[in-house]
Amino acid sequence: MKTDIHPNYNTGIKVVCACGNDFVTGSTLDSITVEVCSECHPFYTGKQKLVDTAKRVDKFQARMAKAEEASKNRKGKKAKRAKADAKKAETAKKAPKKAAKEKTAEK
Fold first, then answer.
1. Which of 4, 56, 62, 95 has the fewest CB atoms within 10 Å, measured from its CB?
2. What residues have CB less than 8 Å from 23, skipping those under 6 apart?
3. Are residues 38 and 44 in contact, defined by beta-carbon separation less than 8 angstroms?
4. What's the CA gap between 35 and 41, in Å, rounded?
5. Domains of the chain, with CATH numbers?
6. Please, are residues 20 and 36 in contact by the beta-carbon 8 Å criterion?
7. DSSP of 56-82, one letter per residue?
8. Would the CA dihedral through 33, 36, 38, 40 be positive or negative?
9. What is the rounded distance in angstroms from the CA atom of residue 42 to the CA atom of residue 31?
10. 15-70 pLDDT, tens per residue?
11. pLDDT of amino acid 54
C-alpha cells in the first residue's frame, strides 16, 4: 500500500438508527446515521414498516381503493350484452302485435 493516500480507518464508530437502536462498527466515516437497521428492518422482524416521508404509500392505497370501488360499480360486457339482447327481444315481441293490429285495422 502506498502511504498517505488511503483514508484513516476508525474503529469504534457509533451507528445510530432512526428507531433508536445504536451499535459500534468500523468505518472511514466519523459517524453514521441510518433509517433502517437489523432491529427494525421487516426482513428481520417479520413486521411491515413503511418508511414514507411524503405520504406516497397513503396516496397509492387511497387511489387503489378508489379504483376498486369504481370496478365494483362498473358493468361488464356480458351485462351490457344481456341488457341489449333483452331490449331487442322486448321490441321483437311488440313488433308482431303491431303488425297484427294493423292487419285487423285494414280489414
1. 4
2. 14, 15, 37
3. yes
4. 9
5. 10-93 (4.10.80.400)
6. no
7. HHHHHHHHHHHHHHHHHH---HHHHHH
8. positive
9. 24
10. 999 888 999 999 999 889 998 888 887 777 777 766 666 788 888 999 999 998 88
11. 77
For 9, 14, 56, 62, the CA distances from 27, given in Å and listed in that order, are 6, 9, 33, 42
Whether the Cβ atoms of residue 47 and residue 29 lie closer than 8 Å to each other:
no
For residues 39 and 19, is the Cβ–Cβ distance under 8 A?
Answer: yes
Please report, as a single letter, which amino acid is at residue 31. Answer: S
Identify any residues that bridge with 16 across adjacent strands, giving them in sequence order: 22, 33
Residue the block writes with cell 331487442: 88
Q: In terms of DSSP H, where are the helices of the chain?
A: 42-45, 56-73, 77-106
**Per-residue cell: 98:** 303491431
Give the pLDDT band (50/70/90) at residue 98: low
Residue type (1 letter), 47: K
